[in-house]
Structure formats: C-alpha cells, structure tokens
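Appendix B.2, paired examples.
Example (i):
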Amino acid sequence: MEVVSMHQAKSSLSQLVSKAKRGETVYIGAYGKAQAKIVSVDYEEKPERKIGVLAGKLQIPDDFDESLPEDVLAEFNQ
C-alpha cells in the first residue's frame, strides 16, 4: 500500500482523484501511515464475510447424491 504525503496530495489532488475514478484506492497520510483514503463515488465497501454462519442450521439428506427417478429425468429430456 502506497501512502501519499499530505504535501504531495495537496499539490496533485486532481491526479489522485483521477486515479480513484479509475478504481484505484489512494491513501493519504504522514510518515508513511495512512490516515485517509480517496475512493471512487461508486465504490462500495464489501461486507465482512463470516465463515460458518450457517453451521448446524442446514441438513443434507442421505440420498442427496443419488440419481433422480426416471420420471423426473424424463421431464428434463423433453
């Protein structure tokens, strides 16, 4: 992650906004530590994914991977 200094951001704001418009995230800060970021207006923060949120809530039947009955298969082939 590249951090643009405050001074550099002040003198090249239009170029940094152009970068953000192209989909890049521009970080601004001091001493190499980001304090702000510039993103496109269309940018959406993706929600944090929680792994295992449905654990224990779904049941898979024992016959899940068995073949379908012939009459059901025949409906697909029409």
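Example (ii):
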Amino acid sequence: MLSDTEDQMARRPGRPDKNSRPGRLRIVAGKWRSRLLPVGDDPSLRPTSARVRETLFNWLAPVIGGATVLDLFAGTGALGLEALSRGAKRAVLVEQSKPTLRQLKDNIATLDAGNASVVAKDALQYLCHAEPEPFDIVFLDPPYAAGLYEELCRLLDEGGWLTPGARIYLELSDDTDFPGLPAGWTVLNDKTSGKVRYLLLRAPERSQQRSNG
C-alpha cells in the first residue's frame, strides 16, 4: 500500500494517478480493470487517486450495480468510468473544458462505453437549466477553492436530481470548512488521505423537495 505522502503527491494539480504511468489513468476494478487511459496535460486536472477510488467504491459496493450515476466535474472521467466498470447502468459526465472533453470522449470511445454520455456544460448551469432526472449516485469533486459545495448540494436536493436514499460523494481539501448540508442528509463515511478529505453522504429516503402549492 502506498503511503499518504505518495497519495498526496498524486493529488496535486497536473499530477496523474499515482498507480498509473505518467499521463495515464488506471481503472482499478471491474470489467475494465487495469485499463490505462490517456490523461490530458491540463494543469488544473487532479484525478481522484486510485487509492481513494478503491475506498470509495468499497463504500458504494452495495448500491453500485445497476445504478445511474452523475459525475458533475468529470475531468478525466476517473469516477464515472470507474462506476461503469463496476456495474453502474448509466453515467452522465459533465465537463466544460474543451481539451478535457476531447480526451474524455476519446477514452469513452476506447472503452466502447455506450452507457456513458458527456455533457459539455458548467456544472451549475447544468443543474439550473437542464431537464432534471433522478440519479442514484452523484460525484461532487469541484475545484477546492471555488466554494461551490453548499450550492451544488442545494440544487441537487431541490431540483429533482436524486432518487430516494441517493448517495452523494464529496471530495474537498482537508482545510476546507465542512459545507452545510440539506435537511435530512446524513454522513455515511468520512475519511482523510493526505490533504484530501472525502465523504459519502446519503439523501433522505423521502423527497425533500418543496411543494409549489
């Protein structure tokens, strides 16, 4: 097992996944296990490390099979593609960077992942303006300093984007203040690796959306 120092280095902007060759992302498990995919040279990319993904998907193991997945800051696709590899039914990957989008689409084509769709939009614009559909699992890994967590969680909660009991993954810097969560959301798992804090949350079993009446 790699040390926390190695894991932290892998999460710095511009660094590839620690368990992959330089410029490559490795799928950890499932039908595409050990597949290596190219990663763009965008210095703002910081793909979720293989170590963190392994822990996250152990948490998600009871619910990943047949799940619908929304990856709101897809980047390299590390989370959305890992979910599909492990049995998710469908994944929507939202990304606004044009160079990153090109590589993401190429990687989806390489894997022949017909159940993955890419949306070329800003995540907030997508949640505010797209026709909502409920997802079983949502990945939230925005830029750490952007301060978007509370607004994203509110939009997911109120906008019809979550199935009852949906799981929401948050990844943030360990020195970031914990965001306020919508009513009824609970923390299932909470862990820190190096400078990264990552959590799995659960939405209420019953919808919390406000009535218009």
